Amino acid sequence: MRNRGFWKSFEMFESLSGDALDAVADAARPRRWAPGEVLFQRGDPGDWLVAIEDGRIRVSLVTQAGKELVLRHAEAGEMLGEIALFDRQPRSADATAVGPVTGHVLSRRDFDRLAAQDPAFYEAALTRLSTMLRATTLQLESIALYQLRARVARFLLITLEQLHGADIPEGAGLSLGLSQGELAAVLGATRPKVNKVLQDFRDDGLILDDAGAWRCDIKGLRAEAGGDA
């Protein structure tokens, strides 16, 4: 079933024509994954991407010691697996359904076929990869160059930007879906230190607990983040 609106909501496809969006919708196939089901593992062939319609997917790596390092959670309205589709390399991480997940799968073969018919697909892919590279650079910069309080603020802002766009509304809500231990691993810190920073942020009014999510003082977080965050 064609659904231009669904595909146009993804940055990678938002600039495509109506006919091109219809072609994507026709080529994609709906999929469902049960809670705990593995979509793919590190090293698997990267021959499809998924546009998430509903649910949450955990992206992680397993260390040599057998511990899972959670890199991020991908949610409804996000795309996953496109890197391997473009560089034709194996998957670089594991992806597991946190709860029931529904999505639409676009294979590399279909993407290549569509791109051969319309070069706008390659332009869209370059735009998407540039956005991902920028986000990765900002996250690495946050870990390498800033004190923990600023790193936490920058991580929250980067995540909020992924959810709301560059113009984050004041008081925007955020549900990370990460434990404090997982957040600490991403930020290169210990859990007690991250816990203290988060409590300090609560005391300072930068985050407000609200029904399982946080309401964020965007101006205050930007001041804490420093730089160009």
Automatic annotation (TrEMBL):
HTH crp-type domain ranges (all copies) = 146-222
What is this protein called in UniProt? Answer: Crp/Fnr family transcriptional regulator
User: What residue stretches are annotated with the Cyclic nucleotide-binding domain?
Assistant: 12-114
Enumerate the InterPro entries for this protein.
cNMP-bd_CS, cNMP-bd_dom, cNMP-bd_dom_sf, Env_Response_Regulators, HTH_CRP, RmlC-like_jellyroll, WH-like_DNA-bd_sf, WH_DNA-bd_sf
**One GO term describing the cellular component:** cytosol
One of the entry's Gene Ontology molecular-function terms is: DNA-binding transcription factor activity
- Keyword annotations: DNA-binding, Transcription, Transcription regulation
> Residues of the signal sequence?
none
Q: Does the keyword Transcription apply?
A: yes
Q: Which domain of life is it from?
A: Bacteria
Q: Which SUPFAM superfamilies does the entry link to?
A: cAMP-binding domain-like, Winged helix' DNA-binding domain
